[in-house]
Write a structure and sequence with these properties.
alpha/beta, homodimer, Alpha/beta knot, about 25% strand, S-adenosyl-L-methionine (chains A, B), tRNA methyltransferase activity (chains A, B), TrmY (chains A, B), eight-stranded mixed beta sheet
């Protein structure tokens, strides 16, 4: 399983935004939409072994978590508006601390970074930062990872502190600073290559076959 | 310089589509929009050393080429709707075989794959196909490349014939078939790493500094 967390510092936490203006009205929700698409799509299908966790910290109710589960996901197309629409539907739900299913494979609840980190106890955490250790030296060791990425604002000092306390390792994907969705594509590629080398089938094909 | 060609087999060739429905009304223009964004954006700025060539083959006037020049580009944001809007503006121009500037850094003309290939004479062409040679064995040799990618329909037999006749080398970016925009991110990363190893500054920073 690959879990990917993206922190949206300004991303709206109510569904009253316009799908025609995801960058403006929805607090740079376009960034999160592109991350969802990069995390989940293969050329002909979905990555079944991936969960995406969007941590939304914008107004009016900072601290909501939307989870996309590749294994159960439906109604998602690769365009930004499609993931934006599923996010909007999830934000129209009345949420509590407990998971509520919005659409197939999409879940929403209240929570913050600590909530998420607690749910990953025992997993290996990797926090993406441009000066981190190059993933190319590590990719053969990485199993069952959780990756944590910031948005256009990066990761705050407070968040970084929480990540390091939780044992996250700092990694990078190349020599220059890239958008989060591009980083996700690069992470997947490293792991796909490592899985293929081990004779496994990348992208969770086995899971799909067993559905 | 890195030139990237994406063939949009169904992409509309008039500007009368809705930015609210890039996949449907504009003939999977969403794919081309994501490619533009992946090709041109760095975390804090634009890749100045990249040109993107969209070959639009959909109705009503199949055979238009829109070129985005990283060095001169303005008004582009990373969201799909932003590149969709610049494409739409270009398609609203009356075009001929000669380049017409639509907005800063965006040019449009009539043409087909052969027109494009002729304009790259002397350059090294790389055609992306999932069973191609792995770029990781080649990346240190690649200078001044032109990459050619298909859309959701891939590349037709006829196009492939033209590409091979023009001397294109078939390469791949990993063990599984990916969306074109993800392939572009992976191509850039390989070249960025090779440039960094050679002590160059990836992303065309030198060009930017000299503007």
């Amino acid at each position: 399983m690959r879990d990917i967390v993206i922190i949206g510092h300004k991303a709206k936490t109510s569904g009253d935004f316009s799908l025609n203006d995801l960058p403006g009205s929805a607090g740079r929700m376009d960034i999160l939409c592109r991350c969802v698409s990069s995390a989940l799509f293969l050329s002909f299908g979905m990555r079944r072994d991936v969960n995406v966790h969007l941590l939304l910290l914008g107004e009016p109710e900072p601290g909501k978590i939307i989870r996309f589960e590749g294994l159960h996901l439906r109604y998602l197309n690769p365009d930004e508006r499609s993931s934006g629409s599923l996010i909007q539907k999830a934000l129209q739900k009345t949420v509590t601390e407990k998971d509520i299913r919005s659409t197939p494979g999409v879940w929403v609840r209240n929570g913050d970074l600590n909530t998420l980190l607690a749910s990953f106890e025992g997993r290996t955490l990797f926090y993406l930062r441009e000066d981190g250790e190059d993933i190319r030296g590590l990719d053969r060791e990485i199993r069952d990872p959780v990756f944590i990425l910031g948005d256009h604002m990066g990761v705050t000092e407070e968040e970084e502190k929480q990540l390091l306390e939780a044992g996250a390792k700092i990694i990078s994907v190349g020599p220059i600073s890239l958008h989060s969705n591009h980083c996700i594509t690069l992470l997947h590629n490293e792991l796909d290559r490592a899985e293929a080398e081990r004779g496994e089938i990348p992208g969770g094909e086995k899971l799909r076959a067993g559905e």
